[in-house]
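As a warm-up, study this chain.
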Amino acid sequence: MSQIQSLHQQAMDLVEAAVARLRGALEQATQLTRQAFEQETQAASLIASAFD
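Now compare it with the structure written out below.
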């Protein structure tokens, strides 16, 4: 699996965990969502650099 796909999958896993935790732990869900965003940002950066 490429690094981009791996980062994206990690982000998706974090989002799924965040959604599950939204039912009881808002602060933890917020942290997981932020981590997912960081993973997706890294994946997008790798894609963008491939076109430079």
